[in-house]
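User: I need a structural model of Tryptophanase/L-cysteine desulfhydrase, PLP-dependent from Natronorubrum tibetense GA33 for a docking pre-check later this week. Nothing fancy, just the predicted C-alpha coordinates so I can convert them on my end. Input:
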Amino acid sequence: MVAYKSKVVERIHLPSRERRERALEEAGYNVFELAAEEVFVDLLTDSGTGAMSDEQWAALLRGDESYAGSRSFDELESAVQDVMGFSRVVPTHQGRGAENVLYGALLSEGDVALNNTHFDTTRAHVANQGADPVDCPVDRAHDLTVDGSFKGNFSLDRAWSIVDEVGAERVPVVISTITNNSAAGQPVSVENTRRVREFADEIGATFVIDACRFAENAAFVRDREAEFSDSTAAEIAREQLGYADALVMSGKKDGLVNAGGFVATDNETLFERCKQRAILYEGFPTYGGMSGRDVAAMAVGLREAVEEAYVTDRLEQVRTFAELLEDAGVPIYTPPGGHAVYLDAASALPHVPPAEFPGQALVCALYREGGVRGVELGSFAFPDTDRPELVRLAIPRRTYHREHLEHVVETATTVLENQEAVSGLEVISEPENRELRHFTASLEPISH
Ligand code: F0G
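Assistant: Understood. Predicted C-alpha coordinates for Tryptophanase/L-cysteine desulfhydrase, PLP-dependent:
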Protein backbone atom coordinates (compact mmCIF):
# COMPACT_ATOMS: atom_id res chain seq x y z
CA MET A 1 0.00 0.00 0.00
CA VAL A 2 1.51 3.31 -1.07
CA ALA A 3 2.05 5.50 2.00
CA TYR A 4 2.45 8.90 0.35
CA LYS A 5 0.89 11.19 -2.27
CA SER A 6 2.43 13.76 -4.61
CA LYS A 7 2.67 17.41 -3.62
CA VAL A 8 5.14 18.59 -6.26
CA VAL A 9 5.39 17.09 -9.74
CA GLU A 10 7.87 17.34 -12.59
CA ARG A 11 6.83 17.22 -16.24
CA ILE A 12 8.33 14.40 -18.31
CA HIS A 13 7.74 13.57 -21.93
CA LEU A 14 8.42 10.83 -24.41
CA PRO A 15 10.35 12.26 -27.38
CA SER A 16 9.32 11.05 -30.83
CA ARG A 17 10.82 7.83 -32.14
CA GLU A 18 12.92 9.80 -34.68
CA ARG A 19 14.23 12.02 -31.90
CA ARG A 20 15.10 8.99 -29.77
CA GLU A 21 16.92 7.34 -32.67
CA ARG A 22 18.92 10.52 -33.23
CA ALA A 23 19.61 11.07 -29.50
CA LEU A 24 20.95 7.52 -29.23
CA GLU A 25 23.20 7.97 -32.22
CA GLU A 26 24.46 11.33 -30.93
CA ALA A 27 25.13 9.71 -27.53
CA GLY A 28 27.36 7.10 -29.19
CA TYR A 29 24.94 4.36 -28.08
CA ASN A 30 25.94 5.14 -24.51
CA VAL A 31 22.97 6.19 -22.38
CA PHE A 32 25.21 8.04 -19.89
CA GLU A 33 25.66 10.57 -22.71
CA LEU A 34 21.91 11.16 -23.14
CA ALA A 35 20.41 14.39 -21.89
CA ALA A 36 18.00 13.47 -19.07
CA GLU A 37 15.32 15.50 -20.87
CA GLU A 38 15.39 12.95 -23.67
CA VAL A 39 14.51 10.18 -21.20
CA PHE A 40 10.92 9.27 -20.31
CA VAL A 41 11.34 6.78 -17.44
CA ASP A 42 14.82 7.03 -15.94
CA LEU A 43 15.92 3.83 -14.19
CA LEU A 44 19.66 4.49 -14.52
CA THR A 45 20.12 4.53 -10.76
CA ASP A 46 18.34 4.72 -7.41
CA SER A 47 21.14 6.96 -6.13
CA GLY A 48 20.17 10.53 -5.32
CA THR A 49 17.22 10.34 -7.71
CA GLY A 50 14.37 9.86 -5.24
CA ALA A 51 11.74 12.32 -4.02
CA MET A 52 12.10 13.97 -0.63
CA SER A 53 9.15 14.25 1.76
CA ASP A 54 7.52 17.51 2.84
CA GLU A 55 9.22 17.02 6.22
CA GLN A 56 12.59 16.88 4.48
CA TRP A 57 11.86 20.02 2.46
CA ALA A 58 10.85 21.75 5.68
CA ALA A 59 14.12 20.62 7.30
CA LEU A 60 15.97 21.98 4.27
CA LEU A 61 14.66 25.47 4.99
CA ARG A 62 15.69 25.17 8.62
CA GLY A 63 19.21 23.96 7.73
CA ASP A 64 21.99 25.67 9.68
CA GLU A 65 24.79 26.77 7.34
CA SER A 66 27.31 27.53 10.11
CA TYR A 67 30.79 26.38 9.17
CA ALA A 68 31.41 24.86 12.60
CA GLY A 69 29.00 23.48 15.19
CA SER A 70 25.95 23.48 12.88
CA ARG A 71 22.68 22.53 14.56
CA SER A 72 21.89 20.43 11.48
CA PHE A 73 24.89 18.26 12.33
CA ASP A 74 23.45 17.64 15.82
CA GLU A 75 20.24 16.48 14.14
CA LEU A 76 22.19 14.10 11.93
CA GLU A 77 24.16 12.77 14.89
CA SER A 78 20.94 12.04 16.82
CA ALA A 79 19.36 10.38 13.79
CA VAL A 80 22.40 8.14 13.28
CA GLN A 81 22.37 7.27 16.99
CA ASP A 82 18.65 6.49 17.04
CA VAL A 83 18.34 4.70 13.71
CA MET A 84 21.75 3.04 13.35
CA GLY A 85 23.05 2.93 16.91
CA PHE A 86 26.42 4.66 16.42
CA SER A 87 27.63 7.59 18.49
CA ARG A 88 30.24 9.17 16.21
CA VAL A 89 29.50 10.53 12.74
CA VAL A 90 31.78 12.02 10.09
CA PRO A 91 29.69 13.55 7.29
CA THR A 92 30.94 13.44 3.70
CA HIS A 93 29.69 14.72 0.34
CA GLN A 94 28.48 11.24 -0.71
CA GLY A 95 29.21 7.54 -0.21
CA ARG A 96 32.51 7.45 -2.06
CA GLY A 97 33.72 10.37 0.06
CA ALA A 98 33.00 8.22 3.12
CA GLU A 99 34.89 5.34 1.48
CA ASN A 100 37.91 7.52 0.88
CA VAL A 101 37.86 8.77 4.48
CA LEU A 102 37.36 5.35 6.09
CA TYR A 103 39.45 3.07 3.88
CA GLY A 104 42.28 5.61 3.88
CA ALA A 105 42.26 5.34 7.68
CA LEU A 106 42.11 1.53 7.73
CA LEU A 107 44.13 0.21 4.78
CA SER A 108 47.77 0.36 3.65
CA GLU A 109 49.83 -0.85 0.70
CA GLY A 110 49.75 -4.65 0.36
CA ASP A 111 46.65 -5.19 2.52
CA VAL A 112 43.66 -7.25 1.45
CA ALA A 113 40.04 -6.17 1.98
CA LEU A 114 37.33 -8.83 1.92
CA ASN A 115 33.76 -7.93 0.93
CA ASN A 116 30.70 -9.99 -0.01
CA THR A 117 31.01 -7.98 -3.24
CA HIS A 118 32.84 -4.68 -3.64
CA PHE A 119 30.73 -2.03 -5.31
CA ASP A 120 32.75 -0.27 -8.08
CA THR A 121 33.66 2.80 -6.00
CA THR A 122 34.52 0.63 -2.99
CA ARG A 123 36.81 -1.48 -5.14
CA ALA A 124 38.46 1.66 -6.52
CA HIS A 125 38.99 3.19 -3.06
CA VAL A 126 40.47 -0.01 -1.65
CA ALA A 127 42.79 -0.25 -4.67
CA ASN A 128 43.64 3.45 -4.32
CA GLN A 129 45.18 2.65 -0.90
CA GLY A 130 47.40 0.06 -2.59
CA ALA A 131 45.28 -2.73 -1.13
CA ASP A 132 43.70 -5.68 -2.90
CA PRO A 133 39.87 -5.87 -2.97
CA VAL A 134 38.73 -9.51 -2.89
CA ASP A 135 35.08 -10.54 -3.26
CA CYS A 136 33.55 -13.31 -1.15
CA PRO A 137 30.04 -13.85 -2.54
CA VAL A 138 28.16 -17.07 -1.88
CA ASP A 139 28.09 -19.47 -4.86
CA ARG A 140 24.43 -18.84 -5.62
CA ALA A 141 24.93 -15.05 -5.91
CA HIS A 142 25.64 -15.19 -9.63
CA ASP A 143 23.08 -17.87 -10.40
CA LEU A 144 20.31 -15.89 -12.09
CA THR A 145 17.46 -18.28 -11.46
CA VAL A 146 18.19 -20.28 -8.29
CA ASP A 147 15.81 -19.36 -5.50
CA GLY A 148 17.28 -18.08 -2.27
CA SER A 149 16.43 -15.75 0.56
CA PHE A 150 19.88 -14.28 1.12
CA LYS A 151 21.87 -14.55 -2.09
CA GLY A 152 23.75 -11.41 -1.02
CA ASN A 153 25.46 -13.16 1.93
CA PHE A 154 29.19 -13.06 2.64
CA SER A 155 30.87 -16.44 2.09
CA LEU A 156 32.89 -17.37 5.16
CA ASP A 157 34.37 -20.36 3.31
CA ARG A 158 35.80 -18.09 0.66
CA ALA A 159 37.03 -15.62 3.26
CA TRP A 160 38.83 -18.35 5.23
CA SER A 161 40.48 -19.67 2.08
CA ILE A 162 41.85 -16.18 1.34
CA VAL A 163 43.07 -15.81 4.92
CA ASP A 164 44.74 -19.23 4.74
CA GLU A 165 46.46 -18.10 1.55
CA VAL A 166 47.65 -14.60 2.50
CA GLY A 167 47.71 -14.71 6.32
CA ALA A 168 45.37 -12.95 8.75
CA GLU A 169 47.77 -10.05 9.31
CA ARG A 170 47.29 -8.91 5.72
CA VAL A 171 43.50 -8.64 6.12
CA PRO A 172 42.76 -5.65 8.37
CA VAL A 173 39.28 -4.97 6.95
CA VAL A 174 36.22 -7.13 6.33
CA ILE A 175 33.20 -5.49 4.66
CA SER A 176 29.60 -6.58 4.26
CA THR A 177 27.59 -4.62 1.70
CA ILE A 178 23.88 -4.61 2.57
CA THR A 179 22.05 -5.03 0.30
CA ASN A 180 24.67 -6.42 -2.07
CA ASN A 181 24.39 -4.01 -5.01
CA SER A 182 26.87 -5.83 -7.26
CA ALA A 183 25.04 -9.12 -6.64
CA ALA A 184 21.71 -7.90 -8.03
CA GLY A 185 20.76 -6.03 -4.85
CA GLN A 186 20.34 -9.25 -2.87
CA PRO A 187 19.95 -9.06 0.92
CA VAL A 188 22.28 -10.26 3.67
CA SER A 189 20.87 -12.08 6.71
CA VAL A 190 21.50 -11.05 10.29
CA GLU A 191 22.79 -14.58 10.97
CA ASN A 192 25.40 -14.10 8.24
CA THR A 193 26.30 -10.70 9.69
CA ARG A 194 26.90 -12.33 13.10
CA ARG A 195 29.19 -14.88 11.51
CA VAL A 196 31.15 -12.17 9.70
CA ARG A 197 31.53 -10.41 13.07
CA GLU A 198 32.96 -13.60 14.61
CA PHE A 199 35.25 -14.06 11.62
CA ALA A 200 36.53 -10.48 11.89
CA ASP A 201 37.19 -11.05 15.62
CA GLU A 202 39.08 -14.27 14.92
CA ILE A 203 41.42 -12.60 12.43
CA GLY A 204 41.60 -9.31 14.34
CA ALA A 205 40.07 -7.24 11.52
CA THR A 206 37.81 -4.19 11.58
CA PHE A 207 34.29 -5.06 10.45
CA VAL A 208 32.70 -2.43 8.21
CA ILE A 209 29.13 -2.48 6.93
CA ASP A 210 28.39 -0.62 3.70
CA ALA A 211 24.97 0.51 4.84
CA CYS A 212 23.74 2.31 1.69
CA ARG A 213 20.57 0.23 1.54
CA PHE A 214 20.36 -0.87 5.19
CA ALA A 215 16.61 -0.21 5.53
CA GLU A 216 15.70 -2.28 2.46
CA ASN A 217 17.94 -5.04 3.81
CA ALA A 218 16.17 -4.90 7.19
CA ALA A 219 12.76 -5.27 5.52
CA PHE A 220 14.00 -8.36 3.66
CA VAL A 221 15.22 -9.82 6.96
CA ARG A 222 11.79 -9.20 8.54
CA ASP A 223 10.14 -11.05 5.65
CA ARG A 224 12.62 -13.91 5.26
CA GLU A 225 14.57 -14.64 8.46
CA ALA A 226 12.38 -16.58 10.90
CA GLU A 227 14.02 -15.13 14.02
CA PHE A 228 12.91 -11.63 13.01
CA SER A 229 9.40 -12.21 11.69
CA ASP A 230 7.90 -10.25 14.60
CA SER A 231 10.45 -7.44 14.53
CA THR A 232 10.19 -4.08 12.79
CA ALA A 233 12.62 -2.94 10.11
CA ALA A 234 13.81 -0.27 12.55
CA GLU A 235 14.63 -2.89 15.22
CA ILE A 236 16.35 -5.15 12.71
CA ALA A 237 18.43 -2.31 11.26
CA ARG A 238 19.83 -1.47 14.69
CA GLU A 239 20.55 -5.11 15.47
CA GLN A 240 22.27 -5.81 12.15
CA LEU A 241 24.32 -2.61 11.98
CA GLY A 242 25.28 -3.08 15.63
CA TYR A 243 27.61 -5.95 14.72
CA ALA A 244 29.90 -3.61 12.78
CA ASP A 245 32.80 -1.50 14.03
CA ALA A 246 32.06 1.18 11.45
CA LEU A 247 29.58 2.07 8.72
CA VAL A 248 30.08 3.72 5.33
CA MET A 249 26.90 5.32 4.12
CA SER A 250 25.67 6.96 0.95
CA GLY A 251 22.73 9.13 1.95
CA LYS A 252 21.66 9.08 -1.69
CA LYS A 253 20.09 5.67 -1.12
CA ASP A 254 18.43 4.94 2.23
CA GLY A 255 19.20 8.44 3.52
CA LEU A 256 16.43 9.47 1.08
CA VAL A 257 18.34 12.57 -0.08
CA ASN A 258 19.85 13.78 -3.33
CA ALA A 259 23.35 14.27 -1.89
CA GLY A 260 25.32 13.24 1.18
CA GLY A 261 26.98 10.43 3.07
CA PHE A 262 28.92 9.66 6.24
CA VAL A 263 31.12 7.33 8.24
CA ALA A 264 29.76 6.21 11.63
CA THR A 265 31.56 4.40 14.45
CA ASP A 266 31.79 4.04 18.23
CA ASN A 267 35.55 3.65 18.09
CA GLU A 268 37.14 6.90 19.27
CA THR A 269 40.55 6.24 17.69
CA LEU A 270 39.01 5.45 14.32
CA PHE A 271 36.72 8.46 14.65
CA GLU A 272 39.68 10.79 15.22
CA ARG A 273 41.54 9.39 12.22
CA CYS A 274 38.49 9.72 9.99
CA LYS A 275 37.89 13.26 11.21
CA GLN A 276 41.39 14.30 10.19
CA ARG A 277 41.00 12.78 6.74
CA ALA A 278 37.57 14.37 6.39
CA ILE A 279 39.03 17.82 7.05
CA LEU A 280 41.53 17.19 4.27
CA TYR A 281 39.14 15.76 1.67
CA GLU A 282 35.57 16.69 2.60
CA GLY A 283 35.27 19.72 4.86
CA PHE A 284 35.01 20.59 8.51
CA PRO A 285 33.53 17.56 10.31
CA THR A 286 30.19 19.20 11.11
CA TYR A 287 29.29 19.59 7.43
CA GLY A 288 31.67 17.34 5.47
CA GLY A 289 31.14 18.72 1.98
CA MET A 290 27.37 19.01 2.33
CA SER A 291 25.44 22.19 2.82
CA GLY A 292 23.81 22.42 6.28
CA ARG A 293 20.38 22.03 4.66
CA ASP A 294 21.37 18.76 3.02
CA VAL A 295 22.62 17.48 6.38
CA ALA A 296 19.27 18.44 7.92
CA ALA A 297 17.29 16.68 5.18
CA MET A 298 19.38 13.54 5.54
CA ALA A 299 18.71 13.48 9.30
CA VAL A 300 14.99 13.33 8.56
CA GLY A 301 15.42 10.89 5.64
CA LEU A 302 17.24 8.32 7.77
CA ARG A 303 14.30 8.17 10.17
CA GLU A 304 11.77 7.89 7.33
CA ALA A 305 13.72 5.07 5.67
CA VAL A 306 12.96 2.65 8.51
CA GLU A 307 9.27 3.51 8.82
CA GLU A 308 7.36 0.28 8.21
CA ALA A 309 4.88 1.80 5.77
CA TYR A 310 7.61 3.37 3.65
CA VAL A 311 10.05 0.47 3.46
CA THR A 312 7.34 -2.17 2.99
CA ASP A 313 5.91 -0.23 0.05
CA ARG A 314 9.41 0.22 -1.34
CA LEU A 315 10.10 -3.53 -1.53
CA GLU A 316 6.57 -4.19 -2.74
CA GLN A 317 6.98 -1.81 -5.68
CA VAL A 318 10.18 -3.51 -6.83
CA ARG A 319 8.61 -6.96 -6.38
CA THR A 320 5.48 -5.98 -8.34
CA PHE A 321 7.64 -4.62 -11.17
CA ALA A 322 9.55 -7.91 -11.27
CA GLU A 323 6.30 -9.92 -11.33
CA LEU A 324 4.92 -7.82 -14.20
CA LEU A 325 8.12 -8.43 -16.19
CA GLU A 326 8.09 -12.16 -15.46
CA ASP A 327 4.41 -12.46 -16.39
CA ALA A 328 5.25 -10.78 -19.70
CA GLY A 329 8.00 -13.35 -20.33
CA VAL A 330 10.95 -10.99 -19.81
CA PRO A 331 13.87 -12.96 -18.30
CA ILE A 332 15.08 -11.47 -15.01
CA TYR A 333 17.39 -12.25 -12.09
CA THR A 334 15.30 -13.90 -9.35
CA PRO A 335 14.37 -13.17 -6.71
CA PRO A 336 14.44 -9.40 -7.38
CA GLY A 337 16.64 -7.20 -5.19
CA GLY A 338 15.64 -4.29 -3.01
CA HIS A 339 16.36 -1.36 -5.28
CA ALA A 340 16.29 -2.75 -8.80
CA VAL A 341 15.21 -5.48 -11.16
CA TYR A 342 18.01 -6.95 -13.26
CA LEU A 343 17.21 -8.21 -16.76
CA ASP A 344 19.01 -11.25 -18.11
CA ALA A 345 20.21 -9.86 -21.44
CA ALA A 346 21.89 -13.08 -22.61
CA SER A 347 18.52 -14.87 -22.49
CA ALA A 348 16.60 -11.88 -23.82
CA LEU A 349 18.83 -11.50 -26.89
CA PRO A 350 20.34 -14.96 -27.50
CA HIS A 351 21.42 -13.99 -31.03
CA VAL A 352 23.82 -11.30 -29.72
CA PRO A 353 27.11 -12.91 -28.64
CA PRO A 354 28.93 -11.64 -25.50
CA ALA A 355 31.58 -9.96 -27.69
CA GLU A 356 28.82 -7.73 -29.07
CA PHE A 357 27.51 -6.66 -25.65
CA PRO A 358 23.96 -8.04 -25.41
CA GLY A 359 23.36 -5.99 -22.24
CA GLN A 360 24.26 -2.71 -23.89
CA ALA A 361 22.26 -3.70 -26.98
CA LEU A 362 19.24 -4.25 -24.71
CA VAL A 363 19.81 -0.93 -22.91
CA CYS A 364 19.82 0.86 -26.28
CA ALA A 365 16.75 -1.03 -27.49
CA LEU A 366 14.78 -0.09 -24.34
CA TYR A 367 15.60 3.55 -24.91
CA ARG A 368 14.83 3.43 -28.62
CA GLU A 369 11.54 1.65 -28.08
CA GLY A 370 10.16 3.48 -25.05
CA GLY A 371 12.50 6.22 -23.84
CA VAL A 372 13.46 3.99 -20.89
CA ARG A 373 16.99 4.32 -19.47
CA GLY A 374 18.63 1.41 -17.63
CA VAL A 375 22.28 0.53 -17.19
CA GLU A 376 24.40 -2.33 -18.50
CA LEU A 377 26.25 -4.34 -15.85
CA GLY A 378 27.84 -7.06 -17.95
CA SER A 379 30.79 -7.40 -20.30
CA PHE A 380 30.65 -3.75 -21.39
CA ALA A 381 30.85 -2.30 -17.86
CA PHE A 382 33.14 -5.04 -16.57
CA PRO A 383 35.59 -5.95 -19.35
CA ASP A 384 37.68 -9.08 -18.84
CA THR A 385 35.42 -10.62 -16.18
CA ASP A 386 32.89 -13.37 -16.59
CA ARG A 387 29.91 -11.61 -15.05
CA PRO A 388 26.42 -12.46 -16.26
CA GLU A 389 25.05 -10.10 -18.93
CA LEU A 390 22.72 -8.06 -16.74
CA VAL A 391 20.84 -4.82 -17.30
CA ARG A 392 19.84 -3.03 -14.12
CA LEU A 393 16.54 -1.19 -13.95
CA ALA A 394 16.91 0.72 -10.66
CA ILE A 395 13.83 2.27 -9.10
CA PRO A 396 14.24 5.76 -7.63
CA ARG A 397 12.55 6.02 -4.22
CA ARG A 398 9.00 7.48 -4.02
CA THR A 399 9.25 8.72 -7.61
CA TYR A 400 7.53 6.57 -10.22
CA HIS A 401 4.04 5.10 -10.20
CA ARG A 402 2.79 1.73 -11.35
CA GLU A 403 1.85 3.24 -14.74
CA HIS A 404 5.47 4.19 -15.38
CA LEU A 405 6.61 0.69 -14.58
CA GLU A 406 3.87 -0.78 -16.78
CA HIS A 407 5.24 1.36 -19.61
CA VAL A 408 8.67 -0.19 -19.00
CA VAL A 409 7.18 -3.69 -19.06
CA GLU A 410 5.39 -2.93 -22.35
CA THR A 411 8.59 -1.51 -23.78
CA ALA A 412 10.61 -4.58 -22.80
CA THR A 413 7.92 -6.89 -24.18
CA THR A 414 7.92 -5.09 -27.54
CA VAL A 415 11.72 -5.24 -27.69
CA LEU A 416 11.64 -8.98 -27.07
CA GLU A 417 8.90 -9.55 -29.64
CA ASN A 418 11.11 -7.87 -32.23
CA GLN A 419 14.41 -9.13 -30.86
CA GLU A 420 15.86 -9.96 -34.29
CA ALA A 421 15.84 -6.22 -35.03
CA VAL A 422 18.27 -5.62 -32.14
CA SER A 423 21.85 -5.77 -33.31
CA GLY A 424 25.04 -6.13 -31.30
CA LEU A 425 27.44 -3.24 -30.73
CA GLU A 426 31.14 -2.58 -31.05
CA VAL A 427 33.23 -0.09 -29.11
CA ILE A 428 34.49 2.75 -31.32
CA SER A 429 36.38 4.73 -28.70
CA GLU A 430 37.05 4.21 -25.01
CA PRO A 431 38.95 6.04 -22.27
CA GLU A 432 42.39 4.93 -21.10
CA ASN A 433 40.93 3.48 -17.90
CA ARG A 434 38.91 0.54 -19.26
CA GLU A 435 37.37 -0.09 -15.84
CA LEU A 436 35.40 3.13 -16.19
CA ARG A 437 34.68 2.81 -19.89
CA HIS A 438 30.93 2.37 -19.65
CA PHE A 439 30.53 5.98 -18.52
CA THR A 440 32.13 7.57 -21.59
CA ALA A 441 32.90 5.02 -24.35
CA SER A 442 31.24 5.36 -27.77
CA LEU A 443 29.74 2.42 -29.62
CA GLU A 444 28.16 1.62 -32.96
CA PRO A 445 25.70 -1.03 -34.04
CA ILE A 446 27.23 -3.93 -35.95
CA SER A 447 25.56 -4.69 -39.29
CA HIS A 448 26.03 -8.34 -40.21
N1 F0G B 1 28.44 1.53 -1.95
C1 F0G B 1 27.41 1.00 -2.64
C2 F0G B 1 26.93 -0.38 -2.29
C3 F0G B 1 26.80 1.73 -3.66
O1 F0G B 1 25.77 1.19 -4.33
C4 F0G B 1 27.27 3.03 -3.96
C5 F0G B 1 26.69 3.80 -5.06
C6 F0G B 1 28.34 3.54 -3.22
C7 F0G B 1 28.90 2.76 -2.21
C8 F0G B 1 28.89 4.91 -3.48
O2 F0G B 1 28.00 5.90 -3.05
O3 F0G B 1 27.35 7.11 -5.15
O4 F0G B 1 27.04 8.13 -2.89
O5 F0G B 1 29.29 7.88 -3.84
N2 F0G B 1 25.92 3.31 -5.94
C9 F0G B 1 25.25 4.05 -7.03
C10 F0G B 1 24.54 3.07 -7.93
C11 F0G B 1 26.13 4.98 -7.77
O6 F0G B 1 24.05 3.51 -9.00
O7 F0G B 1 24.44 1.89 -7.60
P1 F0G B 1 27.92 7.33 -3.78
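Before docking, keep this in mind: The longest helix spans residues 308-327.
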